[in-house]
Design brief:
By secondary structure, this protein is α+β, with helices and mostly antiparallel strands. The protein contains 6 helices and 4 strands. It has one domain.
Length: 164
């Protein structure tokens, strides 16, 4: 009888430790799901911004070329329209998780002396814009502090001359 009572005394509270352990496991898994979902959302958002910035830059026509030859060509002005689109306060307001959207200045060929500036003019009147969003994860940033993630995407648009 004495051995049975001793065993019961040792097992008191063991269910509490198991429940705490499982609660921690579930909490960590939910945290991963939230932050991975945010990463996917930011990647989609960056792709959308890149597409819209490319469309804005594709509307930046070189009027001299258009008037002289009748063909549409994108003005080589350092990605001005794409920059203006991304600097628009309405665009910046839509970035989630305290993120920052900007041109990827390690990409492109349109800047001064054909240097990288975020836009690349290609054959067939295409323009490709690379955009990155830098943001902080929600859960892991709150726990571990610091650290930000940068997501980079590109978008392409083509100028087409039409008849009005």
């Amino acid at each position: 009888m004495r051995s049975r009572c001793a065993r019961e005394d040792r097992e008191q509270g063991s269910a509490t430790f198991i429940m705490i352990g499982w609660a921690l496991v579930v909490w960590v898994l939910l945290s991963v799901v939230v932050d991975v979902g945010l990463a996917i959302s930011q990647r989609e958002r960056a792709a959308d911004f890149a597409d819209q910035a490319a469309r804005a830059e594709a509307q930046n026509l070189d009027l001299g070329t258009l008037q002289q030859s009748g063909t549409a060509a994108i003005a080589n002005d350092g990605c001005a329209r794409a920059k203006a689109y991304l600097l628009d306060p309405r665009v910046r307001k839509t970035v989630d998780a305290g993120g920052v959207v900007a041109l990827d200045t390690s990409f492109g060929n349109e800047g001064a002396n054909k240097s990288a500036d975020g836009c690349q003019l290609g054959p067939g009147n295409t323009v490709t814009v690379s955009v990155h969003i830098t943001y902080k994860p929600l859960v892991f940033d709150a726990i571990f502090g610091g650290g930000s993630i940068t997501v980079t995407e590109t978008g392409t648009a083509t100028v087409q001359a039409g008849i009005r």
